[in-house]
Structure formats: structure tokens, C-alpha cells
Design brief:
three-stranded mixed beta sheet, 4 helices, 5 strands, 32% helix, globular
Length: 115
């Protein structure tokens, strides 16, 4: 799963849906990895001290945290490319997954993620 937001770094329904879908797939025996941008969440919640697990209910979570902080999702949104996140997204996306689902990808790489 490639998405901008994923719990606990989220504001609403899209992240909750991706979490529920991921957990249901794991319950059916699938291996699921979620790649999301923690920096995108911090655009609005700068002072929050949330700590999310790297694996929860069998779902592997890869949180992208760039030292450039807020600049990372802003570059991504303005240019429509992963920008500063390219190095972290490419290894996960380039693995030989059977299926890659994209959800709300505006702040993780937009159109440039599609081959």
C-alpha cells in the first residue's frame, strides 16, 4: 500500500480505510507493507508527539521521515514527484510485489510513482 497518511499519522477516513484493508488482507494470509509519509502529517500537526509501531497487526509499516521535514511533502506536492523521498520509496516499490495499491498519493509522489 502506498499512501500519504497512515495511522496514527492521519486526519481521517482514507488512512483508516487503508489500515482496515491492510489488516483484512493480513488476516487472509497476505503479506502487506504500507509506505507512507510521516512528514506530510507533520505539515498540520507539527508539535504532536505520536509514536507509531513499525509493524502492527501483521502489517509492515515503512514511515518516510526526511530530515528536510516539511520541505519534503511540499516539494512532492508542487512538482508531482517523490522529490526528497525518491530514495526511500523506490526500494519498497521496486520489490517484486504481486499487487501495489495507491491511495491518496498527492504528498508521496503523485503521478511520478506510476511506471
Amino acid at each position: 500500500m502506498v499512501t500519504t497518511f497512515y495511522p496514527p499519522y492521519h486526519f481521517g477516513g482514507d488512512a483508516t480505510y487503508v489500515k482496515a484493508l491492510s489488516e483484512h488482507l493480513v488476516a487472509r494470509g497476505h503479506e502487506v507493507t504500507v509506505v507512507h509519509c510521516e512528514n506530510a502529517f507533520r505539515l498540520q500537526a507539527r508539535n504532536s508527539e505520536i509514536a507509531g509501531p513499525e509493524q502492527e497487526n501483521g502489517v509492515r509499516v515503512h514511515r518516510i521521515r526526511k530530515r528536510a521535514g516539511l520541505l519534503s511533502p511540499l516539494i512532492t506536492q508542487q512538482l508531482g514527484v517523490p522529490g526528497l523521498k525518491s530514495g526511500e520509496i523506490a526500494p519498497d516499490i521496486c520489490q517484486k510485489f504481486d499487487v501495489v495499491n495507491f491511495h491518496n498519493i498527492s504528498l508521496i509522489g503523485g503521478p511520478a510513482l506510476f511506471p
